[in-house]
Amino acid sequence: MNFDTSEEQQLFSDSVRRTLARDYDFEARKRTLASEAGWSEQVWERFAEIGLTGLPFPAEHGGFGGGAVDLMGVMEAFGEALVLEPYLATVLAGRLVAQSPQARAILPAVVEGRLRLALAHGEIGARHRVDHVTASAWMEGGHWRLEGEKAAVSGAPMAGRSVVPAQTSQGIELFLATPDAVRAYRALDGTVCGDVVFRKAKADRLGGGLAALEEALDFGTALVCAEAVGVMKSACEATLEYLKTRKQFGVPIGSFQALQHRMVDMFIAQEQARSMACLACSKVDANDGPRDRQRAVSAAKIRIADAARLISQEAVQLHGGMGMTEELKVSHSFRRLTVLAVQFGDADHHLARFASL
User: Fold this and answer.
1) Which terminus of the chain has fewer Cβ atoms in its 10 Å neighbourhood, N or C?
2) Which domain holds residue 49?
3) Domain boundary among 188, 208, 228
């Protein structure tokens, strides 16, 4: 399979990397992380200016109609910079809105950067099961009403609207609603999440059901794999640079053969992870049917989870005790890879799904 990107895709990802290098270096990220909000609205506006918020959405709503392969380079760049802003949450929710009658009213504001969305699908006790939905929706007084709670919703405190799966008399359907309450908190990697509550909230029925939700989550899983590859690349490069400069017994520790072998294992794991991420993104875009898509995505997530554990732990260990300090980027990469390894399903969940397919 040809994993080379097109010239347009490469130019766009290079543009994103230049923007992040100029406006989102590690010191700037630490300041954002330490702020009360935990993200930067100015950075989000910059994303809109360079076209990032419109990349995955249809042209009729002001976007560029990009797929997972088009977004792959962007997510790798986000991983390298450890971006905190809720970009993926808006992409996934927006893709579901794009298939609904509400798209014309909602997506232009998303493309312009004026509106952020969240996908509120997870519930307590679900254990990554997409069909575990206890929230309910019903018609009352000519309007849909939504009742229920969703847990660990990425970007929920910053989102103006949320896409929510709920049980109806016809089965699981998707709705667009504003939560009645959001309990915000930080995840292990510092990104902002929230538990959201709906109490007879007025909702718009989007249409689509479990199959549409599964497709969106597979799309998101493929992009998470691409983002993880970017984090791994950053961790490997930082570790290699450290081995070249840190000296013991008068020589760089990178000259020790045992450490060289460990460094090679890290780079091999990174390259294997990149290949699987490319395969997952291409399968998501190919639309060859849910079975092929799910097998490729689960296989990629299994490989990514294993590589994330190996590279994050080795990066910290090869740096020694200072690898755990806030001052070094590898400690932040460690936490980010730990979160990405379980987002949209950990290795055990995807092993079970792969086996069932």
Assistant:
1) N
2) 7-111
3) 208
